[in-house]
Amino acid sequence: MIAARQAKQRNLELTVTGVGGQQMAAAGANVIANTVRLSAIGLLEALPYYIKGRGLQKQVNQYLLDNPPDLMVLLDYMGPNIPVG
């Protein structure tokens, strides 16, 4: 993760926390919810993942309330990002 390396060179503390998968974790991010198994294309295909996705959304919301970030970058999925933002 380039930002983390640059921050370290400048003696700045940087913690990257996100929602994602193994690649994000391997890059050095603190993954608070793994979403790899929630991917689907199409409305009907996504229905089986709805309950688990809502549970992860609640987990992320609680994490943000307990650990307010200095900065957030919201990518992809507008549906969950609007309430988080």
Task: Summarize the model shown.
With 85 residues, this protein is mainly alpha-helical. The protein contains five helices and two strands.
Commentary on this structure:
The protein is mostly helical and 85 residues long. The protein has one domain. It has helices at residues 2-9, 22-26, 43-46, 50-66, 78-84, and strands at 17-20, 30-34. Strands 1-2 form a two-stranded parallel sheet. Strand 1 (17-20), helix 2 and strand 2 form a beta-alpha-beta unit. The radius of gyration is 15 Å and the shape is elongated. The model has no long low-confidence stretch (mean pLDDT 85).
Average residue pLDDT: 85
Strands of the largest sheet, in order across it?
Answer: 1-2
Please compute the radius of gyration using only Cα atoms. 15 Å
What low-confidence regions span 5 or more consecutive residues with pLDDT below 50?
Answer: none
| Major β-sheet annotation | 2 strands, parallel
Output the keywords.
single chain, 85 residues, mainly alpha, two-stranded parallel ribbon, 48% helix
Secondary-structure blueprint of this entry?
Elements: H1 2-9, E1 17-20, H2 22-26, E2 30-34, H3 43-46, H4 50-66, H5 78-84
Parallel strand pairs: 1-2
